[in-house]
Design brief:
Metal Transport, Frataxin, Chain A, 8-stranded antiparallel beta sheet, 39 strands, 3 domains, mainly beta, Trefoil (Acidic Fibroblast Growth Factor, subunit A), 32% strand, Thaumatin, 527 residues, 5-stranded mixed beta sheet
Amino acid sequence: MRLRRRLLAVASALVVALAGVPLATPAHAVGPSLLPVTVTNTTGRADAVYLYVIGTNLATGRLGYVNAAGTFAPWTGGQLPPSPAPDVAIPGPGNGGSTTIRFPRGFSGRVYFALGQKLKFFLTPDGLVQPAPWAGGDANRDILFDWSEFTYNDAGLWLNSSQVDMFAVPHAVTVTGASGVTRRTGDVVANGRNAIIDGIRAQSGWANTVQTRSDGTVLRVLAPGKAAGAGLLSATYLDSYIAAAWNAYTTKTLTVAPFGDQPNVRYYGRTSGTTMTFTNGSGQVVASFKRPSSASVWGCDGDLPAPNDQVVGPISRTLCAALNRGTLGTIDTQPSTDAAAFYRNTPTNQYARLIHANMADGKAYAFAFDDVGAFESLVHDGDPRSAGLILSPFGGGSTSTATALVSNLNNKCIDVPNSNFADRAPLQMWNCNNTNAQKWTFTGNAVRSQNDKCMDVDAGSTANGAIVQLYTCNGTGAQQFTLNSAGDLVNLQAGKCVDIKDRSAADGARLQLWDCQGIASQKWRKG
């Protein structure tokens, strides 16, 4: 289920977009009329927390807010220039605490959480002006805040941790269904917030996208579209890549298969001049797009309009995701779902790359159509009973500690050769020496090195003998491992064990996948 953000109002350029309504809903209602949502504060900060639930009543289309009990009230009044909105803040939890609010069924909107200060909202005659710290003179520029987006209706709950506009307060989202199963996403890795901020600052031309308060508090990283619009990132940053990718299809065909459940629905694109034209299987022209600007790619709009239809919109969404991920021009059937191939182009979307790399499960909403291929940080349940928002530790997203992984065969440790934390570095065995090359952190099903790269199976292979290596974290099955109670380190995608090649006891012995056999070369322990 894709979520489309929609405008709260058209009266102000500062009005921002919300999670949209699912395309189809059943006639019968599921889930409680008021869904309990527990907000938990694990930030480690002493700031007071203020919560706001704002959005749209889906039955009436009225814009308004919800109080802690789940009661909806429409906004009234408003002027031009915009006038201050009523204070509708809900007291949130202190560090280590939790607060329960309620979503009424039939509501779509945002949960804002502000740390240290209340947010300032404004009303026009037509709607609500929300915080927009990328805009000059915004009243909330120096407030540390963030939000999640949601829709709760008769088809269930959709809740995501959005980074489409900015990354500020790391947070996870959960939903628990009638079966008792809880789904969770949005957790950053240990020290993930700092890794994202430091990683952005290290990229040429990106340092100004990090906003800091006068007291030294790092408030947020702006998404590239917002930063470029504010003059903080080159407005033409991605243009050279876009041109090369677009022009690639003057001599070959791009195939777009936008529906995972309809693999035979395909559209075929070729470029002439600066226009890419798509035909269907019968050769009929169904869509055309001008070569987009960087702004259109960042926003997935402008030259890449995405109407809620069954042809143009799906093609446009696929193009935008491919351009943001850097796979258009090199992978000719889209969407590509090989995360290992993402963000390899130059220049690339460093913002999306670093956010995904520092998520425990590799998933994030780093641009508007990051849900293409199911890479978004979204939880959904058609019959929810409760939900949660967890404000994550600023110094880390995991309580896991680094540990060595020791072989039962030779009492040696899994090691990064020469401490060279490069993509595709093959992992090996070495005498245990307590260096960072031998320290690993389990976050979810990822096994992370000390530079926040992941244990990985080369090319996502599931074959016996596949190389076990180091690679940028991407949340794919190639990087999903578990150390079970029997001491097997199992790649979940392949259902095979990490094994010492040739059962060698020597330093430098390489690692591979192999059918689990219960032998010493496949037995591991934390040390």
